[in-house]
Write a structure and sequence with these properties.
With 393 residues, this protein is of the alpha+beta class. It has two domains: 165 residues, Nuclear Transport Factor 2, Chain: A, CATH 3.10.450.50; 175 residues, no CATH class. Helices cover 25% and strands 26% of the residues. The chain contains nine helices and twelve strands.
Length: 393
Amino acid sequence: MLPGKTISFFVFSIIIIFILLCAPVALPAQPSQAKSPQAAPLPAENMQKILQEMLETRARAVLTGADPAPVYRMYDTSVKLGRWALSHEQSKLHFIQSWAQKRGVRITEANMTLKIPWSRVREDRAEFVVHQTLALGYIYPDQPAVVNRFGIGTRHWIELVHRDGRWLIRKDFYTDGLGDDTLAPKPTPADGAAFTGRPPSAAPAQGSGSAIYDREGAARYADKYAGLAWGAGNDHQYNSRYRDLNGQGGDCTNFVSQCLGDKEGGRLPMDGAWYYRYDRNGGSGSRAWVQTEAFASWLLYSGRSQRIARGTFPELNQPAGRFPRGAVGELQKGDVIGYEEKGHIEHFAIVVGTDSRGYPLVNAHTVDRYHCPWDMGWDRKTVFHLFHINDSP
């Protein structure tokens, strides 16, 4: 879980989203009894098509060199929440364009699908709960034929309003791994190109010697249960054996613990501090299983891992001292990254491989990520903790 989050209107709104997601059935569109001179009621399927087109336009704006103006025109700036939603989107687009430029890549693909589990349509207003699955692809200039694809999954509560003959976004509450999964109000990516090189050395083969950790199994589990993110398996559903902690502080640490310890995953043995108790209602995890700071302490002092390094992006990304490939280049599949802000670790992700140039990729929950560049969405002041999981006791 994520400690230290300031309770704010934004977080409150995110909690509302997950309350709505618990509804057992989708609500049908409700026609209004009032007469409106602005617009006649539209069927829910028509409104869903309008929303689909809007979100596809937003996805295309992520591409390197894309004109963001069509996106900015989609917002109702006559009200405060409409202006806030526009500012949120502007900040996200600025972050990812800046990230791509600084890392020396070009984003060349952006494809989106969505599901709408709940909607309510009136004459001049429509509300939706949206599950969005976004696939992005980037290339290195010297490898134009090789596209590195990754996925992001987001949960939205969106309100559209009909004004001046057009449908506009008045509200859109969500957290996006492309630029705001951080305590910084307007995050800025750290300077520096992605230092790449040969991938880390292969981990010991499963079952060899006295190995107690299955790295390949941990990565397969992370891919299967990466939720709404493009690329994930299990029909984009979490593992139902575990409680979903989104809306209760965050599911990131719970997910990484699953990857390490589940029998489908890394099969790292549980102990008296780090464990999960299963039951028909989803069970519950120990503090070290679900809470970021407690999990970090367990990693440090249980003997199950060692911290390779702690530092900002420039300190970990570039060759220095005992790390000729940069400290982050020492990470192997199945290792873990902690993300510290304002003195506290706020997030965890698991390393699942590297891109075509050896840049580490991670999977995570809250926000759902699949094979995402390890620093995507994080501010230049973020401090990263690189943990190597020990293969042997």
